[in-house]
Write a structure and sequence with these properties.
InterPro entries: Hemerythrin-like. This protein is 84% helix and 0% strand. It has 146 residues and is mainly α. The chain has a single domain, classed as nmb1532 protein domain like (Four Helix Bundle (Hemerythrin (Met), subunit A), Up-down Bundle). Helix 1 runs antiparallel to helix 2, helix 1 packs antiparallel against helix 4 and helix 3 runs antiparallel to helix 4.
Length: 146
């Protein structure tokens, strides 16, 4: 069983790979990128849901910190959701410049966000939730997001 930090960091890597696949596909043809965009968007939303509905809730319950790092991460998730939605709209409109402008902004935001989570929040979560880690990872792993 992996730790909370290992599990979520590995999922960051998986989402990053899907992002790269989507960008590569869009570089060849926006109309052919729809499937890879949807795969990336779905995986990223699942990641956000695992954090927001499981790990953040468990962390906040254990530490009492509700206005700290988890509040900031939720705010950044909202920003990224908006960018992902706009990217989908740019794909539909076949607007390559807009799509890649948004994807560049998203990439920078994701890199900064993931670094904060991996270096700070996941470490804190693992420290506070070490006894509950197997249960928390199981809950995240079994999540289904429609």
């Amino acid at each position: 069983m992996s730790s909370i930090k290992e599990y979520l960091s590995q999922d960051h890597s998986r989402c990053d790979e899907l992002f790269a696949k989507m960008e590569d596909s869009a570089g060849k043809s926006l109309s052919d990128a729809k499937e890879s965009y949807e795969e990336f968007a779905k995986a990223t939303e699942r990641h956000f849901q695992m954090e927001e509905r499981v790990m953040f809730v468990e962390f906040e319950a254990k530490t009492g910190m509700t206005e700290g790092p988890t509040a900031m991460m939720r705010h950044e998730h909202a920003q990224m959701r908006s960018l992902i939605k706009q990217m989908g709209e740019a794909l539909e409109a076949q607007d390559k410049d807009k799509f890649f402008g948004l994807s560049e902004t998203l990439m920078i935001l994701m890199q900064q966000h993931n670094m904060k989570e991996e270096q700070m929040l996941y470490t804190m979560a693992q420290q506070h939730l070490s006894a509950e880690a197997p249960r928390v990872v199981d809950m995240m792993e079994s999540m289904i997001v429609e």
